C-alpha cells in the first residue's frame, strides 16, 4: 500500500499566517502539523508516500525532504492550483501504479493514528473505499455520511438538513476503482472535483464503501480555534523535560518542556502544560497553560496563555494577558511608552485584532 498526502491548498481560513507559509507547516506543540501525519503513515507500515504540493512546494519540500526522517520514500506530485481533493487523486494515478492507497489530508490530526484503519482495509478485499468518520456536533459544516448495515449509502457535502452526525475525517483508503470515479465526475458549483462526489459515484455504481467511526479525537486544523484546540490536546500528554536554564526565583507549576539554550529569568512564572523550544528567552513574565513558544521566541514583561508563538516572535511589556492567540514568524507585540496614549498597528490582509477596553 502507498500513501497520498495532500500538502497544497491556500489555507484561506488561517490568513494572514498562510500568506507566508504552508498551512500544513504551522506547528502545534512545536511540531508542524504535517509531521504528525507522516509519523502516522510510517507507523502503519507504509513506506512509499506521494505528497501533493502547490504554491508552497519549496517550503514543504525543504521541511520534509526525501522522507528519510520517518523511514519513508517521498515523491512530490505538483498541482498547478487547488482543484479539489478528487483532482489530487486524478494527478496521482500514475504514481499509485494500480496499488491501493491511503489519502491523508496534511492539515488533519488524528489521536489514534491510522494503523488500525489500514489493517482493516488490508484484510478485507470486499470494499473499494474505506472512509474515516467521526461524530460531530455541527454536521452542517462537513461532508456527512449516511450508513446502513455497515455500508456507506450516501454522502452529502455540508447538508442543510443532515440525516446523520457522521462527518468525513480527512483520511480515506481506496482501491484502483477510485480512479474511474474521479475521472467520471464533474466539477462542483465551486469549480472543484469533490472527493465526496467521487465516493458517491462508487456507491451509485454498485461499489462497496465501508465506514470506520473513530472514538478518539480528531482535528481539522484549518481554523485558528481548531489549531489552538489541537495544541491544547497535544500538550495534555507532554512530560516535563528541562534542557534550558532556569534562574533562581522562577516558579514552575505543572508539566513543562524547555529546549536547549532557552533561559527563564527574573520573577517569571511557568504554569504547564507548556512547550518551549530552543533559544527562547522569558523575562519577568507569566506563561500560562496550553502555550507553545517556538525557537527564538522572546516574552519580556508580559503574560500569555492558550496561545502559539512561532519562531522569533516577541511580546514586550504588553499590558493585560494575551490569550487565544497565534503570532506569526517574527511578529512583535509591544506596549509603546509614547504619549498621548494610542494604539498603533501594522496588520496584514484578513487579520483580526481584539483590543481590551
Using the 3D structure, state the CATH architecture of the largest domain. Answer: Alpha-Beta Complex
Query: How far is the N terminus from the C terminus?
Result: 56 Å
Radius of gyration: 22 Å
**Share of helix, binned:** 10-25%
Proportion of residues in extended strands: 25-35%
Low-confidence stretches: 345-350
What is the count of DSSP helices, taking H or I runs of 4+ residues? 8
**CATH topology (fold) name of the largest domain:** Spore Coat Polysaccharide Biosynthesis Protein SpsA, Chain A
Shape: elongated
Number of domains: 2
**CATH homologous superfamily of the largest domain, by name?**
Spore Coat Polysaccharide Biosynthesis Protein SpsA, Chain A
State mean pLDDT (0 to 100 scale): 87
Largest sheet, in brief, is: 7 strands, mixed
> Which strand order spans the largest sheet, edge to edge or round the barrel?
5-4-1-6-11-8-12
CATH class category of the largest domain: Alpha Beta
Count of distinct strands: 30
Structural class, judged by helices and strands? alpha/beta
Explain how this protein is built.
By secondary structure, the protein is α/β, with parallel strands linked by helices. It folds into 2 domains: 2-234, Spore Coat Polysaccharide Biosynthesis Protein SpsA, Chain A; 240-334, Hexapeptide repeat proteins (UDP N-Acetylglucosamine Acyltransferase, domain 1, 3 Solenoid). 19% of the residues lie in helices and 32% in strands. It contains 8 helices and 30 strands. The protein has helices at 33-43, 57-64, 85-91, 93-96, 115-123, 177-182, 195-204, 224-235; strands at residues 2-7, 27-28, 31-32, 48-53, 73-78, 101-105, 108-110, 129-135, 143-148, 151-157, 166-174, 209-213, 218-220, 241-242, 245-246, 251-253, 256-258, 263-265, 269-271, 274-276, 281-283, 286-287, 291-293, 298-300, 303-305, 308-309, 314-316, 321-323, 326-327, 332-334. The strands form 7 sheets. Strands 5-4-1-6-11-8-12 form a 7-stranded mixed beta sheet, sandwiched between helices. Strands 14-17-20-23-26-29 form a 6-stranded parallel beta sheet. The protein has a 6-stranded parallel beta sheet with strand order 15-18-21-24-27-30, with no helix packed on it. The radius of gyration is 22 Å and the shape is elongated. The chain starts with a strand and ends in a 23-residue tail after the last strand.
Amino acid at each position: 500500500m502507498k500513501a497520498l498526502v495532500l500538502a497544497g491548498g491556500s489555507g484561506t481560513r488561517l490568513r494572514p499566517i498562510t500568506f507566508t507559509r504552508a498551512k500544513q507547516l504551522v506547528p502545534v506543540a512545536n511540531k508542524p502539523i504535517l509531521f504528525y501525519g507522516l509519523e502516522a503513515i510510517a507507523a502503519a507500515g507504509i513506506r512509499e508516500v506521494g505528497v501533493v504540493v502547490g504554491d508552497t512546494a519549496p517550503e514543504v519540500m525543504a521541511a520534509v525532504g526525501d522522507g528519510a526522517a520517518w523511514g519513508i520514500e517521498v515523491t512530490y506530485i505538483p498541482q498547478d492550483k487547488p482543484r479539489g481533493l478528487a483532482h489530487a487523486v486524478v494527478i496521482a494515478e500514475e504514481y499509485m501504479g494500480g496499488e491501493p492507497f491511503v489519502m491523508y489530508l496534511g492539515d488533519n490530526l488524528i489521536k489514534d493514528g491510522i494503523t488500525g484503519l489500514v489493517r482493516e482495509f488490508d484484510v478485507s478485499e470486499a470494499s473499494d473505499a474505506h472512509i474515516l468518520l467521526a461524530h460531530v456536533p455541527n454536521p452542517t459544516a462537513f461532508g456527512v455520511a449516511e450508513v446502513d448495515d455497515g455500508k456507506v449509502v450516501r454522502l452529502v457535502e455540508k447538508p442543510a438538513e443532515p440525516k446523520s452526525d457522521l462527518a468525513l475525517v480527512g483520511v480515506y483508503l481506496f482501491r484502483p476503482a477510485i480512479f474511474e470515479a474521479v475521472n467520471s465526475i464533474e466539477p462542483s458549483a465551486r469549480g472543484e472535483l469533490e472527493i465526496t462526489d467521487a465516493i458517491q459515484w462508487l456507491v451509485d455504481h454498485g461499489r462497496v464503501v465501508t465506514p470506520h467511526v473513530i472514538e478518539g479525537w480528531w482535528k481539522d486544523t484549518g481554523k485558528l480555534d481548531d489549531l489552538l484546540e489541537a495544541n491544547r490536546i497535544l500538550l495534555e500528554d507532554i512530560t516535563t523535560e528541562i534542557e534550558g536554564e532556569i534562574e533562581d526565583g522562577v516558579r514552575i507549576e505543572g508539566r513543562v518542556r524547555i529546549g536547549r539554550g532557552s533561559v527563564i529569568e527574573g520573577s517569571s512564572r511557568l504554569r504547564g502544560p507548556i512547550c518551549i523550544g530552543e533559544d527562547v528567552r522569558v523575562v519577568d513574565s507569566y506563561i500560562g497553560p496550553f502555550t507553545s513558544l517556538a525557537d527564538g521566541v522572546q516574552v519580556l514583561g508580559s503574560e500569555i496563555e492558550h496561545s502559539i508563538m512561532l519562531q522569533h516572535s516577541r511580546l514586550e511589556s504588553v499590558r493585560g494577558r494575551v490569550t487565544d492567540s497565534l503570532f506569526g514568524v517574527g511578529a512583535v507585540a509591544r506596549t509603546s511608552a509614547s504619549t498621548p496614549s494610542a494604539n498603533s498597528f501594522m496588520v496584514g490582509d484578513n487579520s483580526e485584532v481584539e483590543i481590551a477596553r
